[in-house]
Structures are given as C-alpha cells and as structure tokens.
Amino acid sequence: MISTQEKVFNYAILTAVAVGVLFPVAWIIGVAVSPNPTGTLDLSSPHWGNFATAWAQADFTQYLKSSLIISGGVVAVSTVLAVMSGYAFGVLGVAGEKWLFPLLLVGLMVPMETIIVPLYYDFLAYGLTDTYKGIILAHTGLGVSFGAFWMRAAFRAVPPALTESAEIDGANSWTQLWRIHLPIAKPAVITFVLLSFMWTWNDYFLSLIMVSDPGHQPMTLGLGAFSNRYAVQDNLLSAGAVLISVPIVVLYMFFQRQFIRGMLSGAVRE
C-alpha cells in the first residue's frame, strides 16, 4: 500500500520532470510567434504569420515532399522486413537461428558513425547517392536489426495454444501470420511504424552525408540550410523547427494508445 507521502513525492518528481521537458517546447513555440527576431520571448502581439514566412522563405514544400517520400518508403519496406523476419525467427524457426539472430543483432551495437564512410563510398560506386532509393535503402538497412528483434519478441508473446489450434484446423504459415499473429501483435506493429517514421523523419546526419542535391534533401537539412541563410532571425528558425515537428506530434496524438500498448505489452518481452 502506497502511503500519502509516497504519492506526494512521486507526483512531485513527475511534475518536475514534466515541467523540465515541456518548458523548452513552450519556449520554442513562444519564440516562434514572437515579433522579435533576436529570440527574445515577446508575446505582447503574437505573429502567427511567422510560420507562413518561414515556410515560404525556406522553400519547405520541396523538402516536405522529399521527407514524405523517404519516410514513407522506409516505413513501408522496414515494416514488411520486420514482420517477415520477426515471424521467421520468432515462430517458424529458421535453420541456424541460434547463430543468425545474434549476428543480426550486431547491427544494434554498431554505431552509424563507424560505418558511414565505407557506406558512402559503396553507395557512390553504385550511383545511389543523391537518390531517394539510396537514402531509403540506407535507413532500411540500419533499422532492420531492431525491426527483427522487435517483431520477434512480439510474435513470441502470442500464446502457443492459438498456433496449435490453427495448425489442427489446417491453417498454413501465411494464414497463421495474417489471421492470428498480426492481429494480436498490432500494437507492436503500430509502435514500430511510429518509431521508424520518427527516426527517419528526424534524421540529419545520414541524410547530410548521402544527399547533397537540394531536390532530394529532407526537411531537417532544409532547416539547416535555412539557419545558415537567416541565422539572425531566431523567431523564423523556431517557427521552422516547430513546423518540422508537427507531423510527429500529430501521429503520436492519433496513435498514442496503440503506441503505449505496444511499448508495455509482450513486444518488449522475451
């Protein structure tokens, strides 16, 4: 039984953490609508037009198109690979699984910075730099290890009795995947989709190395170019940063329950 003092202490800690997290966000939003370009918070006469000005001056329309193509492609390919590999390792049992799965997980322990130089030259040799398919392939390859681990754990949490009953009824492996495992693991799949989209959308370093053509650069690089041109206009820079974060916030608001269920369910158990 939790005492009243413990409850007060817990709520005080949670409140302090929430304030520490939300204060910078509120400050950035405040600066974004401030008429003062020096970054001073001035809410006496909010300029909501700063968002439209930042969008137009940074030419975010083209960057948004690139971000949607890259993030959408990565999410689609990564999700298919994650489901297939997770089902193979978690349910079907592939030959040499005890060696192949740990080898696959090595990708989780290798920092991207250690492989980015040889990766760039490999992609350059095959003509994959400055292309959508190249950056999508790079993001997908770097995330396949986590996807296999995540979905394997989710599928292993499905009660074996359901699989056995389906086998008795004559269901093959594909039917079991679509009719049993995927519906049960739906929160884990949605969580993986959101994480994959968020990581790809927020990426700056990989895109900076692989994409130099402004016509194929995502919004994060667009904000970087915008900051170089308008370094003294902090209110417009803040408005641009807020615009980039909007899709992530909107997706989380729509799928927050599924996201939390995926994080707390059997998707994190072995």
UniProtKB/TrEMBL annotation:
Ranges of residues in domain ABC transmembrane type-1: 64-255
Primary location class: membrane
Matches recorded under PROSITE patterns: ABC_TM1 (PS50928)
SUPFAM superfamilies: MetI-like (SSF161098)
InterPro entries recorded: MetI-like, MetI-like_sf
Domain of life of the source: Bacteria
Entry's family note: Belongs to the binding-protein-dependent transport system permease family.
Protein name: Carbohydrate ABC transporter permease
Organism: Streptomyces aureus
